[in-house]
């Protein structure tokens, strides 16, 4: 094989897992190629997942002045056509900027970006076929499969209908519409349901489960559901699976109890499947599980020698944040780089709904299930100066901690900047700290971060109350 086709590592997929793995390896002087069937690097993450959905959110909140305009008594009349045009233009702009950032990162690290579909052969060679049908065979000492995932499309949902969308095609909507049924109250469903509600669309959020975002602390999930309802969203939970069809009068979404809703559009946002088809995994000896996810060990090794996998293609949590870390760690193991050998076992989760929710560590339910004698403390934004000034008083910081020694176990935030705020709690948690940290630290005032302090005081007060002491501790 010609030298130009030989690499220390060949990465398949240029999403967060592939890009960061490639950069990590190249940083340590390795010769790396990254293959992607998309014309531009960045993965689903940049094209149609994390980055566009978050851009849509920010743009929607900005141009509608959502929940801020009331603070200043402002009226606002939006031109629906212009709003859609602005949303699309801004999203396209950010996608372009972030794609460029990935491209420059690859260039800076002298990583060769090879456009085409990759397929493995039994000896681990990566065959790349371009759109024009040209083939190039690449040999890597190691191969990393980071081909990501795509939305799950159950056959019962008519995705060939122009008004039935998944999380990718929802970004193609180019006309205003009045009503939407979102099927699936996970992160993607809740994010889009609340963004479209903020935009003035009549949204019904349907899920067969009893609560939205079932992995969150139950109280946070309950409170977020209440905020959604106050925003005007209709929540239909625990009602079984929804069916979607069209008749002469338009779309019909039938719920398990027989109720029929006639929305202008449906967004199906429930589940993702790994991109494993056509990769030659079986031929190469790479085992997948029943859900078509690549099986890896703790070093991200697949069942085939010298072939590693990371990111969404290996399954949950299917987050860009975790995929990046998996990619870096996988590259270190694959190439024997003694730099990074574990992925944070306690990653934070950020839900970019309106308002945001975020968590790290144990929920109250987790603590209870583990038989831990725990207590909680709550710092509400309703009493927080910065949040009051900003007109963002909904939500709280909730701490879950061990009663015996006040060791922090979990942090849960609901509110405008939850995904940012959670990191302070994460730092204390990761360093094994107690809620005393928040009691003794001085916080800038006014800040939303101050809610941590009052959550800790509230927790102390609860502990005192439990112990039958009456001394008032709040400052
Ligand atoms: C709507 C939405 C919002 C999200 N928001 C967030 C968020 O806020 N925060 C967060 O952390 N995560 C978020 N995620 C999850 C995040 O997008 C994924 O976890 C992340 O994209 C996974 O990265 P990856 O590198 O594994 O794969 P991907 O980003 O899916 O990239 C895989 C790449 O592999 C390429 N590929 C596939 N097969 C082949 C082949 N045979 N040959 C060549 N190339 C191939 C694809 O073209 C693609 O470019 C969101 C997801 C969705 C759907």
Radius of gyration: 24 Å
Proportion of helical residues: 25-40%
Number of strands: 22
Structural class: alpha/beta
Largest sheet: 7 strands, mixed
Structure write-up:
By secondary structure, the chain is α/β, with parallel strands linked by helices. Helix content is 33%, strand content 23%. It is built from 13 helices and 22 strands. It has helices spanning 16-27, 43-48, 50-64, 80-108, 187-198, 218-231, 281-284, 320-335, 364-369, 385-390, 418-430, 436-440, 450-466; strands spanning 6-12, 32-36, 112-115, 117-120, 126-129, 135-145, 149-151, 164-165, 179-183, 202-207, 234-237, 243-247, 250-254, 260-261, 265-268, 272-274, 307-309, 349-351, 356-361, 374-380, 396-402, 408-415. The strands form 5 sheets. Strands 1, 2, 3, 4, 5, 6 and 17 form a 7-stranded mixed β-sheet that branches. Strands 8-15-9-10-11 form a 5-stranded parallel β-sheet, covered by helices on one side. The chain has a 5-stranded antiparallel β-sheet with strand order 18-19-22-21-20, with helices on both faces. Strand 18 (349-351) and strand 19 (356-361) form a beta hairpin. The protein is globular and about 75 Å long. The termini are far apart. The relative contact order is 0.12. The model has no long low-confidence stretch (mean pLDDT 95). Residues 12-18, 35-38, 43-45, 49-50, 53-54, 117-118, 146-149, 167, 188, 275, 278-279, 311-313, 318-321, 323, 352 line the site of flavin-adenine dinucleotide.
């Amino acid at each position: 094989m010609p030298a130009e086709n030989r690499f220390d590592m060949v990465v398949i997929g240029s999403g967060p897992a592939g890009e960061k793995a490639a950069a990590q390896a190249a940083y340590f002087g390795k010769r790396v190629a990254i293959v992607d069937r998309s014309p531009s690097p960045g993965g689903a993450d940049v094209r149609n997942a994390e980055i566009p959905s978050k851009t849509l959110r920010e743009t929607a909140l900005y141009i509608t002045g959502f929940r801020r305009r009331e603070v200043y008594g402002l009226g606002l009349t939006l031109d629906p056509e212009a709003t859609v045009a602005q949303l699309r233009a801004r999203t396209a702009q950010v996608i372009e900027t972030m794609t460029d950032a990935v491209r420059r990162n690859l260039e800076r690290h002298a990583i060769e970006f090879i456009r085409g579909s990759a397929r493995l052969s039994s000896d681990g060679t990566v065959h790349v076929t371009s759109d024009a049908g040209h083939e190039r065979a690449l040999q890597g000492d190691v191969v990393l499969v980071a081909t990501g995932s795509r939305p799950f499309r159950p056959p019962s949902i008519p995705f060939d209908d122009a008004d039935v969308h998944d999380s990718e095609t929802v970004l193609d909507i180019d006309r205003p519409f009045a009503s939407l049924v979102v099927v699936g109250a996970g992160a993607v469903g809740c994010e889009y349901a609340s963004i479209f509600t903020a935009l003035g669309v009549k949204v019904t959020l349907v899920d067969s489960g009893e609560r939205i975002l079932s992995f969150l602390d139950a109280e946070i999930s309950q409170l977020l559901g209440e905020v959604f309802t106050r925003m005007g969203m209709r929540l239909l939970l625990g009602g079984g699976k929804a069916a979607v069809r069209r008749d002469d009068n338009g779309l019909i979404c039938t719920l398990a109890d027989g109720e029929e809703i006639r929305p202008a559009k449906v967004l199906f946002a429930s589940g993702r499947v790994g991109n494993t088809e056509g990769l030659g995994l079986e031929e190469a000896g790479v085992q997948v599980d029943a859900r078509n996810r690549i099986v890896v060990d703790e070093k991200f090794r697949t069942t085939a020698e010298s072939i590693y996998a990371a990111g969404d293609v290996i399954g949950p949590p299917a987050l860009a944040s975790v995929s990046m870390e998996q990619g870096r760690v996988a590259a270190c193991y694959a190439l024997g780089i003694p730099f990074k050998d574990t992925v944070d076992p306690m990653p934070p989760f950020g839900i970019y709904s309106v308002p945001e929710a975020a968590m790290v560590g144990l929920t109250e339910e987790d603590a209870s299930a583990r038989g831990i004698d725990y207590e909680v403390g709550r710092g509400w934004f309703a009493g927080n100066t910065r949040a009051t000034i900003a007109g963002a008083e909904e939500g709280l910081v909730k701490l879950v901690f061990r009663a015996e020694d006040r060791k922090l176990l979990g942090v849960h935030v609901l509110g405008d900047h939850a995904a940012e705020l959670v990191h302070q709690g994460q730092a204390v948690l990761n360093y094994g700290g107690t809620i005393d940290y928040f009691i003794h630290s001085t916080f800038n005032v006014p800040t939303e971060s101050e809610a941590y302090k009052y959550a800790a005081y509230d927790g102390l007060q609860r502990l005192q109350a439990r112990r039958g002491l009456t001394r008032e501790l709040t400052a």
